[in-house]
Amino acid sequence: MTYYDSLTQPVSLTWPLNQAPGIGVITGGTVANVSLDWEPLSGATSYQWQLDDDNDFSSIPPGFEGTVTASSVRLPVLQPAATYYWRVRVIGPVLSLWSAKWSFTTSLGGGIVAPQLESPEAGARDVPLSPVFQWTAVAAAEGYELLVSGEADFLIPVIVRIGEFALPTNAWQSDITLTCDTTYYWKVRAVSSLSYSAWSAVGAFTIQPPPAESEPPPQSPPQPAQQSPVLADWAVYIMVFLAATIVLLLVTILVMVARRH
C-alpha cells in the first residue's frame, strides 16, 4: 500500500506579500484589522501561526501566536510603522515544516492621520514665486514626500521631493522659482524607511502676477531757444545818422583849424 503525504511540504503564505509596506489603516493610534492568509494543505485539520517583531521568533509577544482550523487569522492590534515577521505550519493531524518567514510593515498613517496641508492655503492667490510649504507633522515619520504640479493629475510635476530627496521636516521653502500668474497643485505624504502614509488632500494656489512695468517720469515740453535781442530797423538808422553827423562835424572842425594856420 502506498499513499502521498501532503503534509511533507511547508505551508505556502499568500498575504500580506513578503516585505509589503503600508499594511493596515491606523485607527486610534494603532493598526487594526490585519489578516494573515496562506494556502490550505490537503489533509490539514489545524494550523499554528506566529508573529514577531524579529525574525528569530525567540520572544513572541502575548497574543501573537495561536492555532486555527482555517487558512487565515485576524491579528490583534499592531503598532504603526513597525515591521513584523510571520510564519505558519500544520499541527494536525501531524506537524509539518514551518513555512518560509515573511515580513510586512504596517502603515505609517491612514486617511485620518495623513498630513494636513497648511500653507499655502487652499485657493490662495498672490503666492510668492518661491513659496513656503507647510503641513501637519505625522507621528513616527522620518521624512515627507512632496509633489507640486501645474496639473491636478501630477503627471508632469515641477517639484519632486520623493525617495532620497524627501524632506526631513514638515516645512520647506521652494528652491525652484515658479511661474507668475500660474495655478499649481500640491500634496504631501509621510514616509519612514519601511513605510509611508496616505497622500494628503490636494491643495491649489496661484502665484502672484508679474510686477507692473514702471512708467518713465513725465518730460517737460521743449523750451524755445533763447534768441539775442535784435534792434529794430529805425534804431539802426538813427545810429548810422548820428555816426555820420559826428564824422562830418569832426571834418568841419579840422578844416577850420587848418585855414587859420
Describe the structure in your own words:
This protein has 261 residues and is mainly beta. The chain has two domains: 6-106, Immunoglobulin-like (Sandwich), CATH 2.60.40; 117-207, Immunoglobulin-like (Sandwich), CATH 2.60.40. It has one helix and 18 strands. The strands form five sheets. The protein has a five-stranded mixed β-sheet with strand order 2-10-9-6-7, with no helix packed on it. Strands 12-18-17-14-15 form a five-stranded mixed β-sheet, with no helix packed on it. It has a three-stranded antiparallel β-sheet with strand order 1-5-8, with no helix packed on it. The protein is rod-shaped, with a radius of gyration of 48 Å. The N and C termini lie far apart (189 Å). The model has no long low-confidence stretch (mean pLDDT 86).
CATH topology of the largest domain: Immunoglobulin-like
Give the DSSP E fraction (strand runs of 2 or more residues).
25-35%
Task: Give the overall shape, derived from the CA principal axes.
Answer: rod-shaped
Any idea what the CATH superfamily of the largest domain is called?
Immunoglobulins
What integer value in Å does the Rg equal?
A: 48 Å
CA(first)-CA(last) distance: 189 Å
CATH architecture of the largest domain: Sandwich
Fraction in helix = 10-25%
Number of E-type strands: 18
Please summarize the sheet with the most strands: 5 strands, mixed
CATH class of the largest domain: Mainly Beta
What strand order characterises the main sheet? Answer: 2-10-9-6-7
